[in-house]
Structures are given as C-alpha cells and as structure tokens.
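User: I want to check something. If I give you two sequences, will you return the structure for each one separately, not as a complex?

Assistant: Yes, each is folded on its own. Here is the first sequence with its structure:
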Amino acid sequence: MNYTTIMHDNEVKQNILKCSRCGLCQGVCPVYEEIKNENSTARGKLMQIWGVKKGDLRLNKKILQSLDLCLNCDKCKINCPSAVNTTGVFSKEKKLNTLGKFLNSNFMFNLKLSMLGFFSIFKKSPKLENGSRIVYFQGCIAKKLKKDFKIKGIKLKNGNFLCCALPYLTKGREDIYEKMVEHNENIIENADLVVFDCATCFSAVKNYPFKNLKNKEKLIFYTDFYKNVDIAANKNYKITYHLPCHLKSGGVELSEIENILKSFKNINYIQMQKAQDCCGFGGDFFIRHPKIAYSISMKKAKNVINTNADFVLTSCPTCLWSLQFSMFINKLINKNNKIPKVMDLNDFINNFCTVTLKKQSKTSQDANTHALFL
C-alpha cells in the first residue's frame, strides 16, 4: 500500500472540475486580502493549473510563484462548498528541478532548524517518562528549542518521532514524506494515545494516509486533557486567545478552547476580533514573503491589543513566534507598555494555574479523564 497523500493526475483533474468558481476562497484567503491578486486565491491557482493541463498555458516561473503565494492555512479548503482539496492540488503541482529538490531536502530543512539551537544553547533536553503508554509527539521546533512539555498529573513518554512531514508535503517532496509517515505510524501503532502540543503537527498527522485507520483515533491535542478538570488562576487575569489555522483544520473549534478558558476561575476571557484569522507566519512563508507576512501579523497584533488583555494565548510554536514578534514591534513603534504577554496555553496553565480533578461523575467522558490522570 502506498503511503502518499499526494494526488494522482486524475484526482487533480477531478478536484479542479469540482470547483464552481464561486469565489468564496477569495473571501477567506489572508494573502488575497493583502495583495488583491486573483492568482493568489485558490480559484486563481486552480484555473492556472487547469490551463497547464489543457495545454493552453505553459508551467512557468510566474505560475510556480503564484502557487508559492500560500500560507497553507487550509482556509480555502475548509470553507470550500464543493469540498475541493485545494492544498492537495497545489502540493501535487509544485514541480521541482534539481536545485529545488536540494533546497527542499532533509539536509536543508535540518540546516534551517539548527539555527534555532542558538536560542537554547544553555538549556537541557526535557526528561519524559519511559514507561508511559501516552506518547508525546515532539515537533521539530520543540526539539530544537528543547521546549519542556508537561501536563499536570499525566505521565508522558517521548515517542522519538521524525518531523510531521508537512514541510515536505507542501514542497512536493513526496519521497521524503512517505518515509517519515511510515516511521511515525510505526510508533503510533504501539501507543495508547499520542498527545500533540503543536497545531501544525496535529493537523498533519491527522491527515496521514494511515495503513491502520485505528491509529488515527489515538491522536489528541493537549487541550482535551483540560476539558473535565477544574483550573484556577493564581490571581485575576484578562486573557484572549488566537486559534492557530492548523488547529481548526485538525478538527478543534474555537468554541472548544473558549469553553475551557471560560471555565477557569479568576479568569476574564475576552474574544478578540477575528480570533481565527491567520497570524501571517505560515511556517517559512514569512521568510519567502516577509512584506505580506508582516502586514498580516500587524493586523493580528492590533486585534490582540484592542482586547486590553494581560495575556494572549495560543497553541502553536510558529503562531507563538508571530505574536511575540508583532507584540514586540508594536511596543517598539508605538511605545505602548500595555502589550499583552504572549504564551502557549499549556505553559500558562503550568505557570499561573492550579489544576484539580472534578468529582468523578458517571459520564464516560469524565471517567476517561480520571483514568488518564490517575
């Protein structure tokens, strides 16, 4: 059985023909909002690809550049009424020459990540339990930054996973993607649960073409552990939350996170305007298209600051960077000292809250929560 989720040519054609040209993708595309260019929308990209398939257009540098104008936020895919797998089509049609394959090789990806090591040169790698059957999927950024991940009352085992492989899938490196998927599923196969703290990794792995479909049922995001516990902040705080795009595409709704935040004692939760809008960083998009990324991140910063919150929380390492960057720039430019502190939701709970189990009820959900924490 083939592991790849990259489409065959006939699947590309079927998806393009499903597109009704309604233009709803235009209304949700963060890139289009900035540059107002039809070629940056999913509809525009699909039409260019269809032109190449029919022989009306030649696959040239301009078309490849328009395919690259994508944050991989999945908003066009999620909001498409015709269920067109837009991002799947784009990944399939990214043709790489020899230089392109080298620039998107495992070696170059690891070289980019190695630069993060300078930020954690004096830190020690976190220790996790070896005997636990609850496995932690440690993403590439967490590994390089030696980020510690803890859930109070839960024993976690490091799964020693490879990259979630999304960076290779979106760059057209099907060969590397398949090998990583196979390695990671073998680890998932032997686990009871696999816990994620990175929205991108969570979404990417949930979309694996699993050989054993039961393995997909083992994947949970860490916020699930906090749905049936009592959480109290150590003092009164105003907080807001940015929903990462890939948490939404991974199946976690903003309302789920808000229900958890609203249950916190001593917390006043304030929903920011456009809480689900992209932060602008999109993996390495901010390196390839810094001007567009900067503009998107500044809009997000304005919405965050307007809440007057003490903290803005999120659940994705890249979103964390983006928010920290935009908050820093706003403080620098506007000399505003009332900038919300940026934190990962789990780190906020660990550093500023107390977590206790609710009294066990007869519901299966509560029983499962108690079993995990005991």
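And separately, the second sequence with its own structure:
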Amino acid sequence: MAKTNKTPLIRIAKRAQLPWYKAWAIRLGAVLLALILCGLITTITTGLNPLKVYATMIDGNFGTKRRIWVLLQNMAVLLCMSLAVTPAFKMRFWNIGAEGQTLMGVLGSSIIMITFKDSMSSGLMIFLSLVTSILFGAIWGAIPALCKAKWNTNETLFTLMMNYVAMQLVNYFVILWENPAGSGKVGIINQSSRNGWLPEIAGNEFLLNILIVLVVTVVIYVYLTYTKHGYEISVVGESERTARYVGIKVGKVIVRTMVLSGAICGLTGFLLVTGTAHTISSALAGGRGFTAVMVSWLAKFNPFTMILTSGLLVFLDRGAGEIASVFGLNVAFSDILAGIIIFFIIGSEFFIDYEIHVGRHKEQNSVQDKAEAPKS
C-alpha cells in the first residue's frame, strides 16, 4: 500500500548559503529594479527625466570635494553607531537606545569643554572629554543591561524610553548654558579659542573622525570574530540555555556587552561635539541611532559590510535632499524614492536566504515498514 502526498503549488525553502558574488548579484539586481521603478514613478508624477534626477543625487554627494568629505563624515557617524549596537544585537539583546547613549556622550564632552574652557589645555580637555563621553555612554548602556540580567525586564522598551530621558537631560543643560540668554541654544562651544576641538589632519577637519571610526571597525570585527568574549556573545545569542549549560554567565555577558555598546555610542557623541558640530543639542544625533539598527541588520552584523550599508543610506539621504532642492520637489517625494530603494534592498535578503519552488510533484510514502520487507 502506498500513500500519495501532493506538495503545495508554491513552496518556500531555506536556501543553502550562496557564494558571496551571487548574493551581491541579487542585491545589485534589487537596486537596479528599484531605480527602474523610481524612474517610472518620477516620470509619471513629475514629468522629470529620471536620469537627471539620479545625476543630481550623485552630484549632491560627489559634486565637490567638500561634499565628498561631508558624505564620509556622515558615514563615519552612522557607522560608529551601527558598530555600537551590533554586539548587543548579535547577543539578541535589542538595544534601541543608541540615540540616547550617543546623547549622553554628547553631554559628557560638553560638560568638560564648557566647565573648563579657560582653565585647561586643549590636549587635556580632549582626553577628559573622551573619557567622560565613553563613561556616560557606558553607564547609560549598563542600566538596562543590569535590569535585564537581574529582573528580566524588556530591553526594547527600556532602552527606547531611556532615549527620551537622555533627550530631556540634554535639553536641561542646553537651557542652563544657553548663549545668548533666552535663545534656547548653546551655540558653538569655544569658538574663538577652539579649546577642546579635535585637530585637523592635512588641513581637513573630518579626517581624524573618519580614521578613528575605521580603527573601531577593525577592533569590533576582531573582538566579535576572534576573541573569547565574541564567542560568548554568539553562544548567548544562539541559546541562553546552551550558554548556561556550558558554563557561560549570561548575566555577566549581557552587562559587559551593553557597557561596550554604550561606550562606543559615547565615543560617537565625543566625535560629534569635538570633531564635527562643536555644540550640544538634543537633535545632534539626528535619529541615526534608529537608522543604525537597519545598517547592522542589513550587514548581518559584519562590521566591514556595514561600511557599504551605511554609505548607501547616507548617499540616499543626502541625494534625496539634493533633488528636493534642485527640482523644487517636496521633501516627502524624495524620501519616497529613497524608501523604495531601501525596501528593495531589504527584500533582496529574502531571496538570498530562501528559494521559491513552483509546481507540484507527487511523493509516495510506503505504509509498510521497510524492516518487515522480505529478505532474499
């Protein structure tokens, strides 16, 4: 007796790991399809030539030497935040608090630069700003980690709510230090003396920031890939039960990893104040803490791949603003185009991990046990 089973007409199956070149071919194909769709939408809704629109996006990012350096600087800030959340995400700790942890780093540097603006050398001020920013960010990351390890609190809500606490703390100090009085702004810190500002390298104000973030990228890659701590993060992320079984102290790993995440966010805040904006504001992080989540996931927690994903998102963001300015379009339309491209890129990951089978075929399963088959 045999039983016949019919498989579904359309089946989704887990795909074996693709070679890197095939995976990137799928991603590039997704970008090409997105550009074609965006071109159709642009032509239909605005009557503009989509090629001119794309050329404007490129010019907005690479048109001048200054624009290229601004692009690289914005990439560095977003990449640094993405590196910060990656260890926690790999551990399956959903740290949505990079925004707040970065703002605490901003506050730490600002306290040193404003308090000691006339009584400390620039070199010592930079060092103390770095230490204070990293410390503030680490503390802000440790608080939800300790609560998670001790009371199993929801880290997503906890870290999200701490963003708003950090914003209000920064707003409080902005009002305390506002210059001029009543403006609600601090202005450029130590503008005349440049005390506490990161030095320029080869006449470029952003180069040191970029180099620091590149060093952090290499360090995080080595940490996650080749160290005992990185191995423990991977095991905890796979299964906390397995981690405990092999003797890993899960609570300790959670706290240690979140201290690291918060510290790197604090470093980002330090770079924003001492190397880029030279001021303090609750909007200084610019929502990049949430964009960093997308960068980390798109790169599948690979620090070097994050360089590409952060570059793409910054390119789209700056390009969207450029076409809105040049063609007089609503900014929302530019964001729609960027959103379509990002959607296609995210969707391409499905086709990298899974394959679709179309068509039916019959499977016959013997009812009689093979062990009972007659022997020759």
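Because they were folded independently, the notes below concern the second chain alone. The chain has two domains: 1-48+327-376, 71-323. The chain has a mean pLDDT of 90.
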